[in-house]
Amino acid sequence: MDVRFPVFTLVFSLLLAAMPALADTYRFASIPPALPDTLECGTNEFPPFTYADANGHAAGIEVDVVREAARRLGLKVNISVLPWPRLIANMRAGALDCMFAAFVTQERLGYMNFTRVPLHVSRLALYSHRTSTFSFERIEDLRGKRIGTLRDFRTVDVLDEALNQGTFAERVYGNDFDQLFEMLAQKRVDVVIVNDQVARAVLRKRNDDAIVEQPVALSSNAAFLTFSRHRNFDNMVAKMDYALFEIVADGTYARYFAQHISAPSP
Predict the structure, then answer these.
(1) 47 preceded by cis ω (within 30°)?
(2) What is the dihedral of CA 154, 251, 54, 225, to 10 degrees?
(3) Which CATH number covers residue 189?
(4) What domain range is 206 assigned to?
(5) Distance between the two ends of the chain, CA-based, in angstroms?
(6) Distance CA 171, CA 160 (A)
């Protein structure tokens, strides 16, 4: 089964080559008293990375990773699953300590402090209806299309800038990825842009073979755990980076990834 994990593995193989002894020798200092011992963190529906389970509790690959990183640092973390627009709004307002996972943008750097170790590398794929003649090879191929995305969802700079001009293509917003794919099935949009692993999870649940992935992907972007700039989390970010590094280095990340990829769709 092609789970497109090699790109992520390569990133961390390079990290391991650069710092071969860290995972064996690094020991965490105590968290400074000025920092909280409990983090209020948010995420969104992004299965299999993050989602709400049947009981409404946060679950997924990255939920497991963040909880394990917090445990290694002697922290507690409360994780809420929120709609993406509300998640971003809460980070802007400082209502959350942290969120995951987000692409780096200049605008977000103003209110988010990003870890350096990513939680995943997102392969942004394009999906269209099987009966469509649409074929994607370059950004210009999206001109005039109805493009389904979540509100405040970032793709790549050149496409985001073109969409913001309002004349290149029509951006159609969905509340979640289920709704976006339903709009695509009904041909209310021409294309949906989403992480390929997320699309597979949603489409397995829908049991829908009318939607197909375009052969050419839009991009591969690293997505990170972020902390609010409303508080000074610089020390926390540095410690979290080492915890995340160790989780990858000792195989814990790969184990979580395999468990959730092989599990039934949420």
Answers:
(1) no
(2) -30
(3) 3.40.190.10
(4) 123-219
(5) 19
(6) 10
